[in-house]
Specification:
Strand content: 5-15%
Strand order of the largest sheet: 2-1-3-4
Order of helices and strands: EHEHHEHEHH
Structural class: alpha/beta
Number of helices: 6
Oligomer: single chain
Largest sheet: 4 strands, parallel
Shape: globular
Length: 137
């Protein structure tokens, strides 16, 4: 396996999105939902970690990849994960992809796909999806 491939199963990849009060926070959240539905990883509860919910922390410790998807450079998702003691292995910031922060909560599908694509690239672009694995087997 090359360094650009993720050898993790989707259950070992946890995705923690920002769900902030702006378009980019909502785009980050929608991208995490899309990646979960596509079988790339599993969206997980950032608030549970920030609230120090022991059972959620224990579940999250099983992850091999911890993905923070932040809406903007304030990086609330990454900072919350680090504060809870987790190493962020992959970090994507929506505004760094040329998407301007606004406060209208609009979630264009093309921008959601752009963020999801960048997360896939971070994971090795060829991160297998549940559907792809099922189709092979």
């Amino acid at each position: 396996m090359s360094l650009n491939e993720c050898g993790c199963s989707p259950a070992e990849i946890l995705i923690f999105p920002c769900s902030g009060g702006s378009n980019v926070g909502q785009i980050a959240n929608a991208a995490a939902v899309k990646l979960t539905l596509d079988g790339v990883g599993k969206m997980f509860c950032l608030a549970g970690l920030g609230g120090h919910i022991e059972s959620m922390i224990a579940s999250a410790k099983a992850a091999r990849r911890v993905v923070a998807v932040d809406g903007c450079g304030v990086a609330c998702a990454r900072e919350t994960l680090q504060h809870a003691g987790f190493e962020v292995t992959d970090h994507v910031v929506v505004t760094e992809l040329g998407i301007q922060k606004q406060y209208d909560l609009t979630v264009p599908e093309a921008e959601v796909e752009k963020v999801a694509k960048r997360v896939r690239e971070s994971l090795g672009a060829i991160a297998p999806t549940v559907r792809a694995i099922a189709a092979m087997g």
